[in-house]
Amino acid sequence: MSATQTHAPPVLPSPPLEAVPEGAQPFAEPDNPLAHLTPEQIEQLGRELDAIHEEVYAELGERDARYIRSIITLHRQLALAGRALLIGSRKKPLWLLGTASLSLAKILENMEIGHNVMHGQWDWMNDPDINSRNWDWDTASPADAWRHSHNYEHHTYTNIRGKDRDLGYEIMRIDPHQRWHPIYMLQPLYNLVLMGFFEWGVALHDLNFDAIRSGEKPKSKALAELKAIGVKARRQIVKDYIAFPLLSGRAFKSTFAANFTANIVRNVWAHSIIFCGHFPDQTYTFDEEEVAEETRGGWYVRQLLGSANIDGSPLFHLLSGNLSFQVEHHLFPDMPSSRYTEIAPRVRDICRRYGLPYNTGPFRRQLGTVHRTILRLAFPGGGPRPKPGPYMPH
């Protein structure tokens, strides 16, 4: 995506979808910080954030290219080491080391490499392989379907109720505005299944079953996307559960188990990082009326209010794909992820000066609030929890 495409304000289709029954509003809406900004302030904030994007893009060069190439090399080395160690995986120490190495390789490939390359963060390099058009990742989601559901739908309509299909992934009630249904009582259980098999859940989510049922998506297109998932599934299954276990010879069973474990570890990690960035208590959601006249500056403010960061070490940020800087990622989804840590202080300063929250916290706290929300909203009722006030530096 170009910078212009990334930051253009969305044009919302109509008619709006009602998230709760008419007249049923059992809770007070949280005070939206957006309402405290004048149109002039919103536009000035947008110009300041545009300037950050332009400054970073003007600086991109060999240092940045060297970074992503070094991460790809590291991933390949970890994967090779893991596969080699698993040849002797009938010995428990080698099984543990091989599984750990393979798990780290898969996490790096999905989070810091695949997700970010497919966002177009490295397209400026004009590399024939490391670009959003040609890259495919080691996961069940076909690249084209994911780019549409994530890059376009989610990053355009972030946290707009009825428009952002990533808000609960259409199967969970994570916002009190959503109508309660008895099926949600099972969401603490099926969330555990989703954690372990997250890549497959995302792949099916990309199909958009509502659009298929309504006829908005032609059956021919749905069948083509389902076939693409089948191609990816076959590739994943053959690679992890047939080819590499066979190469391990007598260690077939232990290598099979190691590959299965590594995939589960990767899925649980990705689920946890992504849910922490979107569904903690302190994030805001929006109805369509609130954003009907949204400008570029308003789009930026919505990204600030609808995302949350995770505090951590440089290693933690790397393994999270720098999605621990979810606020910065939502402001600048096409900016190389390695730059988020550099611009974060400037984003925090903007939040301070405009009286906006900057949502961040330790991993255990962010993850705890996510699972608390999933558990509480499995039952009828529930309202928004208190939101953070304007960012104040410590």
- The amount of beta strand, in percent, is under 5%
Helix share, percent: 55-70%
Please tally the β strands and state the result: 0
Helix segment tally: 15
Biggest sheet overview: none
Large-scale geometry: globular
**Rg value:** 21 Å
Helix and strand succession?
A: HHHHHHHHHHHHHHH
Task: Round the mean pLDDT to the nearest integer and report it.
Answer: 90
What does it look like?
By secondary structure, this protein is an all-alpha fold. The chain has one domain (32-376). It contains 15 helices and no strands. It has helices at 3-7, 39-59, 62-86, 92-118, 143-156, 187-196, 198-207, 209-214, 219-247, 252-278, 296-306, 314-319, 326-331, 340-354, 363-376. α2 (39-59) packs antiparallel against α14 (340-354) and α4 (92-118) crosses α10 (252-278). Mean pLDDT is 90; it is low at 1-24.
Question: What attributes characterize this protein structure?
Answer:
single chain; 394 residues; mainly alpha; 15 helices; 57% helix; disordered N terminus
Summarize the structure.
The chain has helices at 3-7, 39-59, 62-86, 92-118, 143-156, 187-196, 198-207, 209-214, 219-247, 252-278, 296-306, 314-319, 326-331, 340-354, 363-376. The protein is mostly helical and 394 residues long.
